Amino acid sequence: MQKGKIGVSSDNLFPIIKKFLYSDHDIFLREIVSNAVDATQKLKTLAARGETAVSVENAKVRVSFDAEKKTITVSDNGIGMTAEEVEKYINQIAFSGANEFLDKYKNDANAIIGHFGLGFYSSFMVSHKVEVITKSYKEGAQAVRWECDGSPEYILEDAERAEVGTDIIMYVNEESEEFLDKARLNEILNKYCKFLPVPVVFGKKTDWKDGKEVETEEDNQINDVAPAWTKKPVDLKDEDYTSFYRQLYPFGDDPLFNIHLNVDYPFELTGILYFPKLKNTVEVQKNKIQLYCNQVFVTDSVEGIVPDFLTLLHGVIDSPDIPLNVSRSYLQSDSNVKKISSHITKKVADRLQEIYKSNREDFEKKWDDLKIFIEYGMLTEEKFEEKAQNFFLFKNVDGKYFTWEEYETLIKDNQTDKDGNLVYLYTNDQDEQYTFIQDAKNKGYDVLIMDDVLSAHLINKFEQKDPKKRFVRIDSDVVNNLIQKEEESDKLSWKEREELSPVFQAVCPANNGVHYQVDFKPMGESGQPMVITRNEFMRRMKDMSKLQGGGGMNFYGDMPESLNLVVNTDHPLVKKVLAEKDAVLGGDLGKVNEDLTALKAEQDALEKAKEGKKDEEVPAAEKEKLDDLQTKISTLESDKRERLEAFGKDNKLAKQLVDLALLANGLLKGADLDKFVRRSVELIN
C-alpha cells in the first residue's frame, strides 16, 4: 500500500470545490459520468484500431446508489488506469501555474471545474470520501484502489476487479444526502446525460403488475446515444425531426419548421433549431435552447451566448469548440462562441429565405406565428435585419401578403401625400377600428394589420431608416387628414367653432382619466357626425413604454390618455346642434358678443397707444384701464363659456352624438352606457 499527498502545493483546492460550487453541486454527476463515457469511447477507439482484444460490445456506464451505505457509484468498462496512470491523472495535478490559477479563480469555481482535468474532483462537492477501483485494459495490468477523504493525503494499493474499467464510489456527506434518492438522481441524469454517446444505465425498468410498480430484468437506459442532431440531414425525414422535438419538449405544440446545423469549418457545430409557434408576445424562455459540448449538456441559459432573438427558438446546439465548464461571463466573451453566434444568425436568415423562396404560399400561412421572431430579430440584430428585408411580409386587412417592394408599388400612386411621403396606414385592432378601416377603403386606401407588441418599435425603426415613409394608425385622424393631399377648407367660421367647442366639451366624459380635445373638420355630409382619434406620436410612445416596462419611456406611459373628438362640420346633425344653440342662446350670446367686441376694440386701441413707449412712460390711468378691460373681457368670456356648456349639457342631441362616437370606440361603459340606451329610446319615441 502506498500513501502520499496529492500534488498540489496549495491546500485550497478542496475548500474551493466544496464552497464555491455548492450552488451547482448536482454538476458532480455530470462530471463523473462524462469521464466514464470518455474512458469507454477511448477503449472503443483502441478496439476499432485492433490495439486491444478487450470486448466493447456491451460497453456502458452504470450509475447506482446505496441509501444505507450512503454511497453513489459510477461504473464503466472503459479503458481503466494503471497505478502509474492514477498517479499521473489523479495525484499529480501540480501542473505549472496551478497555484496561480487557483488563486486567480478561487471566487469563480465554475472556471476551475473542467480546466486541466479537474472534473473528477467535483465528486468532493458531495462526498466526505471518494474511492476509485480501476483496472487498465493493458495486458497483465493489476487493478488498483485509490482513496481520499478530501484532504491532500491519499491511499493507493492493489485491488481486485474482474473486468477492465473503473468504479468511482462516492461516500456522500451529510449536507448532500438529498442525492441518495432515486428520483433526484434520475432528474440529474436526465438533465445532463440524456444524449451522451455511450449507454448510461440507472437501475431497472419498471412495469405495473397486480396494481403496483415492480422492477423488470431489463436495464433502464436513460440516454439516446445517437440523437437526431448527430446524424446527417440526408439520413433524416420530417417525422424524425418531429420525433426529436417531442423528445425535447413532450408537451409543446408542433414547431413550424427547423434548421439542421452541420458545420465543420472554421469551427465544429451541429444542432437542430426549431421555430415554435409564437403568440402575440415576446416569449423569451430561458430553457428552450439547450447547449451541449460533445453531447454533454452545458446550459439551457443561452442569453448572451446567442443573440437575444434566437432565444425565441427551441432546440439543441452542440460544439466541441464551446468550453464545457466555464462561467457564463467567459462564454459570452469567448471568440469561438461569438463566431458560432454569428454563424447561427446567418444560417437562420438563410433558412428563412430558402423557405420563403421555395414555397411562399406555405411561408405566408405560417407568417402570423413567425412574425414576432422575425420582428424581434430585425429590432435587435443588424445583420439579421439586412437579410430579413428579403422575406419580411406586410399583411393587410384583406389577408393578403406583400414584400416591401410589392407593397410600395401597390400604394405609391394613391397613398403619397402632398410632401412626397409614402403613407402606410395600419390598424392594430380590426374590430375596434372597423369604421376607420371602412372609411379608408372607401377612399381607395389599403390598410395593414400591425397588431403585435413589437409593432410600435418596428414602425419607428422603419421610419428612421427612410424618413420619406410614414406609418399612420387608421384612427389617428379623420380619413381626409390621414394622407394630406391639399390644404383643407372649412366653411365653419372661427366664431362658430369657438362657440361649438364648449357645447361638445361639456358632454365629454370627465371621470375616466381621459382628456378630450374638441376639433372641427369638414368630412362630408355622408361622413360620421363625430370621430374620436388618437394622436399618433403619443399613442405610439405609450405603446412602447408598456413593452419596455419603465425606463426613459415610462414618462409617456404615466401621461393621461388624450383623445381628439373631431366634429364633422358638414354633417346635418352637427348643423342642427349649431342651429339649436343659436335658437336658445342667440339673443343672450348676441349681446355678450357685442359687449366683447366693444371691449376688445377699446383694449386694442390702448395697446396700440402703448407701442414704442417704455413701461414708465405709460400713464398709470391707462394701465389701470387696461387691467380693468382685461378683467371685464375674462368675466364675459367665462360667462359665455358657462352658458354654452350649460346648453351642451341640456342638449340631448349633442350628448347623443358624443356618446355615439364613444360607443364606436368601446369607450362608453357602465352608467354612461345605460344613460345612452335610455336616451336613445326616448329620442326614437
Automatic annotation (TrEMBL):
Residues reported to bind ATP: 31, 35, 76, 81, 96-97, 166, 328
Coiled-coil ranges per UniProt: 589-616
InterPro entries assigned to the protein according to its UniProt record, in alphabetical order: HATPase_C_sf (IPR036890), Heat_shock_protein_90_CS (IPR019805), Hsp90_fam (IPR001404), Hsp90_N (IPR020575), Ribosomal_Su5_D2-typ_SF (IPR020568)
Molecular-function annotations in GO: ATP binding; ATP hydrolysis activity; ATP-dependent protein folding chaperone; unfolded protein binding
Keywords: ATP-binding, Chaperone, Coiled coil, Cytoplasm, Nucleotide-binding, Stress response
Pfam families xrefs: HATPase_c_3, HSP90
The organism's place on the tree of life at top rank: Bacteria
Family of the protein in this entry: Belongs to the heat shock protein 90 family.
PANTHER family reported in the protein's UniProt record: HEAT SHOCK PROTEIN 90 FAMILY MEMBER
NCBIfam families attached to this UniProt entry: PRK05218.1 (NF003555)
Protein known as: Chaperone protein HtpG
Originating species: Mangrovibacterium diazotrophicum
Taxon lineage: Bacteria, Pseudomonadati, Bacteroidota, Bacteroidia, Marinilabiliales
